[in-house]
Design goal:
This protein is an alpha/beta fold. It has 2 domains: about 45 residues, no CATH class; about 260 residues, TIM Barrel (Alpha-Beta Barrel). It is built from 9 helices and 20 strands. A 9-stranded mixed β-sheet has the order 16-15-14-13-12-11-9-8-20. It has a 3-stranded antiparallel β-sheet with strand order 1-6-5, with no helix packed on it. Strand 12, helix 4 and strand 13 form a beta-alpha-beta unit. Helix 7 crosses helix 8. The chain is globular and about 65 Å long.
Length: about 350
């Protein structure tokens, strides 16, 4: 299967004949025929093209809580897909078979934006998620899919590390309705040594989403033993979130398991996750969660005013629902931040692979 060379617009020519990609802060400078670090953007015919437009590593219907999004249409199904490649080089990548793939055969499925939107609608999905690898690198495809979805009143969810430049960031998030951004750590040393990127562009993305868009935002931090899990770093991170983004941005602290190039690092202890959650709550984060572990208390949503359990969760299954039709606590009436409907979805924990037969 040959790659689809799709034109892009965030690039410029350099005096030495190379072309610089301006999508993300890597600013890859490419000779003719070269690919960027992400693997999927290349210098072809004196322009930067996307080589994976319209091609996916697979489609699957998931619970929205798996993204994870706990405050965005809880209990509903989301059609999820990704491509191949990534613009970061995280040594701990837990989707490395897709995000680090340089094999075009990884991209087994083809689908037009319209076919994806139609499949989502036919399967009762309330949203489509751009995930598994970072949608930043399939920027054009994600935006076109989002436009097709909006025509069918289906929302778009970005699961991203937020490592992108200002101009493409503006266009990308104008197409999105919700985002879960991986705030991988809160030190420049971690970003540079372990992801090959930098912290500040991610913080800039978070500030932009929160203050310049209507996109619903949640954060995820994978806690890696002795890398980004110190109490000092968690204090600094959660204080920054409350101060700069506000107390209503949910934070998910998830467990690492040995993978990719960090097989020698142990899995995250359960008490590390609970400690992180406690620090976040202490510092004013109203909605803090544990993830990748079975923890009914840490998975559930509580009223920040009276403490009532608003949404009970057991893994990805909703067990309680104590929100009124306006998204308020049924005990004290305090509004819970997020996008809720009068009744929760009932998708549960199912994971349903989907094939999309439509050609481009």
């Amino acid at each position: 299967m040959q790659p689809q060379y799709h034109p892009t617009k965030y690039w410029h020519k350099l005096d030495d004949g190379r072309i610089q990609c301006d999508l993300c802060p890597r600013f890859c400078k490419l000779h003719a025929g070269q690919q960027g670090l992400c693997f999927v953007r290349a210098n072809y015919n004196e322009q930067i093209v996307s080589t994976t437009y319209g091609r996916s590593s697979g489609f699957c219907i998931d619970p929205i809580e798996k993204k994870p999004l706990n405050h965005f249409l809880p209990g509903t199904p989301v059609l999820s897909f990704g491509t191949a490649g990534c613009n970061l080089a995280c040594k701990f990548c837990q989707n490395w078979d897709m995000s680090k793939s340089r094999e075009m055969d990884t991209l087994a499925d083809q689908a037009s934006p319209q076919a994806i939107a139609l499949t989502a609608a036919e399967n009762g999905c309330r949203s489509v998620a751009y995930t598994y690898n970072d949608p930043v690198i399939f920027h054009e495809y994600a935006i076109d899919v989002a436009a097709a979805c909006r025509e069918k009143n289906i929302k778009s969810v970005a699961v991203t590390a937020g490592y992108m430049c200002a101009e493409p960031r503006k266009e990308f998030f104008a197409a999105m309705d919700a985002a879960n951004v991986d705030l991988k750590a809160f030190t420049e040393e971690f970003y540079w040594k372990i992801t090959g990127g930098h912290l500040q562009p991610v913080l800039d993305t978070l500030l932009y989403i929160k203050h310049e868009t209507n996109v619903w935002l949640e954060l995820t931090t994978l806690l890696i033993p002795d890398k980004n899990d110190s109490s000092e770093e968690l204090e600094a991170m959660t204080e920054w979130v409350v101060r700069e983004l506000g107390p209503d941005v949910p934070m998910h602290f998830t467990a690492f398991h040995p993978d990719w190039k960090m097989l020698d690092v142990p899995a995250t202890p359960f008490n590390t996750l609970t400690r992180a959650r406690e620090i976040a709550l202490k510092n004013g984060v109203r909605y803090a969660y544990t993830g990748n572990v079975h923890d009914k208390g840490g998975e559930s949503t509580y009223c920040h005013q009276c403490g009532q359990r608003l949404i009970g969760r057991d893994w990805y299954v909703l067990s309680e629902w104590n929100l009124d039709a306006q998204g308020g606590c049924t005990v004290c009436g305090t509004t819970c931040a997020g996008l809720f409907e009068a009744n929760p979805g009932a998708w549960g924990a199912r994971r349903l692979p989907v094939r999309i037969a439509a050609a481009l």
